[in-house]
Amino acid sequence: HAITAANNLLAAQIDARMFHEATQSDAALWRRMVPKRGGKLYLSPIMIRRLKRLGIEKENAEELTAEEKSRFVRLDIDPATITWRRVIDTNDRFIRKIVVGCGPKEKEKIRYTGFDITVASEIMAILALATSLSDMRERFSRMVVALDKKGNAVTADDLGVTGALAVLMKEAIKPNLMQTLEQTPMIVHAGPFANIAHGNSSIVADQIGLKMVGPDGYVITEAGFGADIGMEKFMNIKCRYSGLRPNCVVLVATVRALKMHGGGPKVVAGLPLAKEYKEENLGLLDKGACNMQHMIRLARKFGVPVVVALNKFPTDTEAELKLLKKKAVEAGAENAVVADHWRDGGLGAKELGEAVVKAAEKEGKFQFLYELDLPIKDKIETIVKEAYGGKGVSYSKLAEKQIKSYTKLGFDKLPICMAKTQYSLSSDPNLKGAPTGFTIPIKEIRASVGAGFLYPLIGEMSTMPGLGTRPAFYDIDIDTETGKVIGLS
Fold this sequence. Notes:
The chain is α/β, with parallel strands linked by helices. The protein is 37% helix and 15% strand.
């Protein structure tokens, strides 16, 4: 809720500021924005920061010339370049595209915009990548929401809202300490969209976890989706900002998923699984194991040892699990261990834990996949070739234009956060296994300057889910006698 409120406060200020600039003179804007306090014109600290960005080294409002006042009060936002959208934490396909400013008091200042799901907000990504309250506030200040009509970046700090955002988020930066069913401490904190953001838990949570376990302890942290997305972003983005380095990668695999990558029937939510997934089928599994092997080799490119956790289903056979163990080790994994923790709790993952401890003791040589000083295209193409196994990249005219603009603005030194389907190494969700020779199409590139990355959009990427034919809320209710919630477990 804090993220939704903060995001939408910034969105409201963008439209409000454009409205006020369009309907008031320079003198009227100055008079309203710089009030008198104690008989003197007052410039707040955030206003003084804006003056300095404009190259105006003055802190006394009385000293500003008419030309300096005009530059100060007018952001002159180009509406066509606004990238900041409103968010809500509800799946609602009908607000993906909306029109704002239709009311009579808005004087026909109409523009098209839309809603994203809250986890897609850059503020969520910042929450996960900030290392402290001060770092979070600084990142908020750098968020770029649009360009002005001269092509300069317009930031949250220019809009005067940075401090208010930090206040709204001051409690949200504190992680939630919880526990497993066996009373093992766990920290739940942040949930950046794993497609368009980096999909990892927060740096602050990792820092606290490491402090809790001490120098001889172990902290397990999650990187969402497949290793080509979550792990690649963990290494190239999160590790850069946290300064932390992993001692081991735990790659989770299942017989069922790898059968699908081997050409198994399509899995549809709500429908029964095909018999291929419930009966032994070594042919499908052997063909699909290449996907797991690709991910192992990708992890090894970062110089980190890999242990494969084979999450066992009741229908998995010993022959199938034996085949995957063999394939994992052949690809460079330290070990591949069957995990039964879903059934046996901690005891079901005891062997896995021992394998991870052993692998973590090995001396690794961590390295990034690319250096930040490479041009934007070189970084994108490195990810496509090294992480996905593709042969190259194609760029739309819009993406080409954005690359030139971001390079001019100095954003070209940021890491890359690819917005890609999680269902395939390629851009085609139906292309399974470990395909090669494909080209990744870049439709658009957006800048999350506060979070600290550029994110190229590969094909169509929805940032607002829609409700299905039978949403889960059909099964959710409350026992009015006891207050117990029904249908969430």
